[in-house]
């Protein structure tokens, strides 16, 4: 693809390259990606429908789970359909404004995902460490306020991204070496010094991610201390099993997102295909795993889904 030699502030379109070095495998890579997307959509829509229909599930844990499910739906839908068009239909071109819109949804909803993981960790902390006051501490009003704060934080810190990129001149190539419009991949195409812009993006992502991860770790540390002091061994094992599966999902999200952030800052020698593949994972795997871990493994949701299925079959 030849470079776009123009002094216009922004090009009409960008060219999404995909995963460099693995172009011949794009069609095959799209199969597991599509399967994960289908599971994510069906699972998260099911959770939202079941919690909405069953009033007994209008508890803090399930309300936060609904917020997480909605975030997962937006996050996966803003990336996967466009990615599959690239893999299967070779639709590489993406309009500049569409690219900026996708970027805003990806980065802001990734921050929201992190915030809702933290909110759910706080909920589990209160439920296990102070069960008698759980519903009085986490009232519906406080849950709504926490959700609003998470959404405002994601929008406020990442809405400058498309605005900043809109002001930059692009007089080099218009090829984005990625499967979606990632901020750092796009800002590299500008034909001026973007050091301050890059520093802002990496700093915001690092601060939000690290603060949330630390607070989640502290919450689960207190939870573990309480679990080991439970009088019943069976209750301890059950709580450990539940917390363990939650921690695994959280670790997948923060490890892959952290790898992507630190690769931009320090990993100049990391092959592009490895960086891009792992960058896809933190957008694909959590929306795929969350309905399984938080939904299928949650007894109340599982029982309500099975009851609805039995009624429809009958």
UniProtKB/TrEMBL annotation:
One of its GO terms (molecular function) is G protein-coupled receptor activity. SMART domains: 7TM_GPCR_Srsx. The chain crosses the membrane at residues 25-50, 62-84, 104-122, 143-160, 202-227, 239-262, 274-296. InterPro entries: GPCR_Rhodpsn, GPCR_Rhodpsn_7TM, Olfact_rcpt, OR51/52/56-like. It is a multi-pass membrane protein. Keywords: Membrane, Olfaction, Sensory transduction, Transducer, Transmembrane, Transmembrane helix. SUPFAM superfamilies: Family A G protein-coupled receptor-like. Residues 43-294 form the G-protein coupled receptors family 1 profile domain. Coiled coil: none annotated. It comes from the Eukaryota. Odorant receptor. This is G-protein coupled receptors family 1 profile domain-containing protein. It comes from Loxodonta africana (African elephant).
């Amino acid at each position: 693809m030849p470079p776009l030699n123009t002094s216009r502030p922004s090009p009409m379109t960008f060219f999404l390259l995909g995963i460099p070095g693995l172009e011949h495998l794009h069609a095959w890579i799209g199969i597991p990606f599509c399967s994960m997307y289908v599971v994510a959509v069906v699972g998260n829509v099911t959770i939202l429908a079941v919690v909405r229909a069953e009033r007994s599930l209008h508890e803090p844990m399930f309300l936060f789970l609904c917020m997480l499910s909605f975030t997962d739906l937006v996050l996966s839908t803003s990336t996967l359909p466009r990615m599959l068009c690239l893999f299967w239909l070779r639709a590489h071109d993406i309009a500049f404004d569409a690219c900026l819109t996708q970027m805003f949804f990806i980065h802001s909803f990734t921050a929201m995902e992190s915030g809702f993981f933290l909110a759910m960790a706080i909920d589990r902390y209160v439920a296990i460490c102070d069960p008698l006051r759980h519903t009085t501490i986490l009232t519906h009003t406080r849950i709504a306020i926490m959700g609003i704060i998470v959404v405002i934080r994601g929008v406020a810190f990442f809405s400058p991204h498309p605005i900043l990129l809109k002001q930059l001149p692009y007089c080099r190539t218009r090829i984005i070496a990625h499967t979606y419009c990632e901020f750092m991949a796009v800002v590299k195409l500008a034909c001026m010094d973007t050091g301050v812009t890059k520093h802002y993006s990496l700093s915001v992502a690092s601060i939000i991610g690290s603060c949330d991860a630390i607070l989640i770790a502290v919450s689960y540390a207190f939870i573990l201390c309480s679990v080991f002091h439970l009088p019943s061994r069976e209750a301890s094992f059950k709580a450990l099993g539940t917390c363990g599966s939650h921690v695994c999902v959280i670790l997948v999200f923060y490890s892959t997102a952290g790898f992507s952030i630190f690769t931009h800052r320090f990993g100049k020698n990391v092959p592009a295909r490895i960086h891009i593949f792992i960058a896809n994972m933190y957008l694909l795997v959590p929306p795929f795993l969350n309905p399984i871990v938080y939904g299928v493994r949650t007894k109340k949701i599982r029982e309500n889904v099975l009851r609805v299925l039995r009624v429809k079959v009958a």
